[in-house]
Please model this.
Amino acid sequence: MKQTHIFVIYDGIENSVFPGQVLQPLCDFLSRNPEQNILLISFEKNNDFLPPPSIQFLFQKSLPSTPSYYAKATKDRSASSGHNRTPLRSASSKRLELLILKKNRFLGQWSLYPAIWQLKKVLKQHQNFTVTARGPLAGYVTKQALGKPLRSCLTVQARGLLAEEYKFVNNTSLPLMDSTGLTTNGGERNSHSLVRGELVEPYERKKKLFTKNIFLGFLYLLRARQYKQLEKKVYGTPGIKIEAVSPALGEFLQKEFGTKKNQISIAKQDIPKQFQPAQITSWKKEIREKLQIPVNSCVYCFNGSAKPWQCPEQVVTFFKKKLEKKSDVFLLVLTQQKKEFQQILRKKNIPEKNYLVITVAHKEIYKYLSACDVGLLFREPHVVNWVSRPTKVLEYQAVGLEVVHNNTVEWMTTDTPAQSHKTTVQNFPHGF
Model:
C-alpha cells in the first residue's frame, strides 16, 4: 500500500509563488519517491474553485472535462460536505490529487474551526500518511485536525513571519497622521484629496483621515496580535518539525516562539535547479533578438512588483547611475504592474531606448531572465526581509545571473547557497 503525503496550503493556489515554490517541488517529490502519492489540499474562498489554465498548462496537467466527471464531482461534493476532489495528471506522474476545501475570512483562531473540522474528516479517510502544512495558518489548522497523537507526522513550512509581515505591509501602505496633518511614513500633504469619493478641504480631510486611522490602527494592531498568538501556538509546539527558509528565520523562531533547535531544518527542496550553460546561451540569443536588445549591452533585470517594499524607486535610481556612466546599458523589468513602473522610469527621465517593461507568464520567466546579465534585489532594512529567502534571487541564480543587493537579506550575506553565485552589495545612504 502506497503512502500518501498530504500537503496543506491556506493562501490559495493562485498565489504568485505557487507554481515555482509549491507545485514544482511536489512534482519533483513524486519523481524521487515512486512509492508515494500526494494529496494537495488547498483552502479557497470558493469550494467550486478550479486551477487557472496557466497553472494547468505550466506543469502539463489537464483536468478531466467529460460531463460524467463533473456530474460525479458535484454529487461527491454534496455528499461529502463541501469536498471537491480534482485529480491532476502530469507527464511524469498520475499520483497527484487536488482537494479544494472552503476557507472563511480570518477573524481570530475561532474562525478556523470550520477548516479544522473539514480537514479532520479528510484525515480520517487515510491511515498511512505524512503531512506538510505551508505557513502558520495551514499549520494551525492541520495541527488541530491531527490532534496530539499524530502531530509527530506534521512538518510546517515556515516561509516568513505572518504577524511581522502584516504589520510591515500595513505600516507601509497606511498614511498615519501627526497633529500637523503631515503623514508620518513619508507621504506628502496635499491641498485637496479624495476621501470616499468626495473632494474635501484640508481641515475636513485631516479630521476624517485621523479618525479613520485611529480605528484602522486599532484593528491592525489587534489582527497582528492574533497572528502572533497563532504563530506561537504552531512554532512553539513540541514535536512538530519546522522547515525554515533561512538560518535567520530559524534563529528568530527559537528566540521569539521558543522553537527547539532540533525541530528546525533549512528548506532545500524548493530551490530551482540550475539550467545548463548551453540552454541559457540559446535563450539569451532568442530573447535578445525578440526584444531587439543589442548583443553587447549589459542588461540589468528587475523581476517583481512596484509595491514599496520591493523598492522600485531605488531600482530605477540604481540603473540611472549606471546609465550615466555607460550609455548602452539596458533595464528589463518583468512585472505585473507595468503602468506603475513606466511612471517611475519617466519620472527619473530614463530614455525609452534603454528600458523595457513587460509582463511574462511564469512558464517563460527563465527564458527572459537568461537574456540578462545582472539581477537587482533591493529591500528595506526590516526583520521581514532579513529572515527571508526571496524567490526572485533563486530565479536569478538558476540562470547564472550576478545579483546586486543592498545587504538587507541575511541569506544573501552569509555562507549559504547564495554565495555559490557572484553577488555585489550596493550601499545606499540611510539604508538606501
In short: The radius of gyration is 24 Å. The CA atoms of residues 192 and 201 lie 6 Å apart. The chain has a mean pLDDT of 78.
